[in-house]
Amino acid sequence: SVVRLAASLLTKLVDSLAPSITSILVQGKQVTLGLFGHEEEVISNPLSPGVIQGIIYSKCSPHGGEREAVLQQELVIHIGWIISNNPELFSGMLKIRVGWIVQAMKHELKIRAGDMPPQDIYQLSPSDIKQLLLDVLQPQQNSRSWLNRRQIDGSLNRTPPGFYDRVWQILERTPNGIVVAGTHLPQQPTLSDMTMYEMNFSLLVENTLKKIVLPEYRQIIVELLMVVAIVLERNPEVDFSDKVDLDGLVKEAFNDFQKDRSRFEGMEKQDDMEAFYKTPPLGKRGTSGYLTKAVMIQLLQGEVKP
User: Fold this and answer.
1) Within 10 Å of residue 64's Cβ, how many Cβ atoms?
2) Do the beta carbons of residue 260 and residue 285 sit within 8 Å?
3) pLDDT at site 305
4) How far is CA 294 from each of CA 46, 174, 237, 289, rounded to the nearest angstrom?
5) Residue pLDDT, tens place only, 233-285
6) Residue limits of the Phosphorylase b kinase regulatory subunit alpha/beta C-terminal domain (predicted)?
7) How far apart are alpha carbons 163 and 155 in whole angstroms?
8) What are the Cα distances from residue 99, in Å, to 63, 70, 95, 156?
9) Strand ranges in 149-287 using DSSP code E only, listed in sequence order
10) pLDDT tens-place string over residues 68-83
């Protein structure tokens, strides 16, 4: 950590930064640099090492993230190496958001620590950092709680196969578009300006989701979008008459979930959604069931209107 801080203060230039960024871009990904929870800078074209480093420092240092600035440089180099050798570890991740990957690694350290204080990520050696990154990128083990899986997948911004195509199919059936975290994804001109499979559309979807703050909530929204697509596919005769407010649908689903918990388990209502995040998607009283019900109710309400 002292080394990281010293390196940071000297603004040590890492020569491998530029080729590492290029390795990531070549795989059809974008990179964002900056602290989790703060503004990020998107990199979609190769840049010189000095420019990359400038971005990292300008985004990390003002928020007291000197050690983070050095860590992000290390991670960019590790990610460049891993993506060249094991691109499958980044499947479903269109944007490599380095600050969010740090968050995933911090979640992982917390999970490992159990009730003990977690290790400080900034105290780990570069080889331990690389190993932790590899561990986090591995498909989530089934022994994990659903909360932990959602935290990590949400932090990695991982999406299921066919996700962006599904969002396109939803847009085709929602004249007023989709709203989430205060961001509106309109049906038009999106559908007329783009095609289903183009990168720009996928990036637009990612952009729509980027204001979501909590990784586990992001994952629920991704789950919800898959649910909406399936419901629409199975009910070709109905369309959404109004905007699809994803936050509103999650809220409805969560309220329903709470009602069932108080009915079946005598649980008090809570504002905290942790119990919902811990619930598996499938199975009896799974999150997908509640999300599906909320979607169906909104669809049918639209149909009843004169």
Assistant:
1) 9
2) yes
3) 45
4) 44, 16, 18, 9
5) 999 988 898 899 999 999 999 999 999 888 877 767 777 899 999 999 998 88
6) 138-282
7) 17
8) 13, 12, 11, 10
9) 178-180, 183-185, 244-245
10) 888 998 899 999 999 9
Q: Are strands 30-33 and 178-180 parallel, antiparallel or unpaired?
A: unpaired
Residue keyed to tokens 């980027």: 210
E strand or H helix at 87, and its extent? Answer: none
SS3 96: strand
Q: Are 55 and 21 in contact (CB under 8 A)?
A: no
Q: What is the pLDDT, as a whole number, of residue 64?
A: 67
| Residue whose token pair is 């109710």 | 297
How far, in Å, CA of 301 to CA of 303, rounded?
Answer: 5
Rounded distance, CA 291 to CA 236, Å? 19
Three-state secondary-structure class, residue 53: helix
Amino acid, res. 78: H
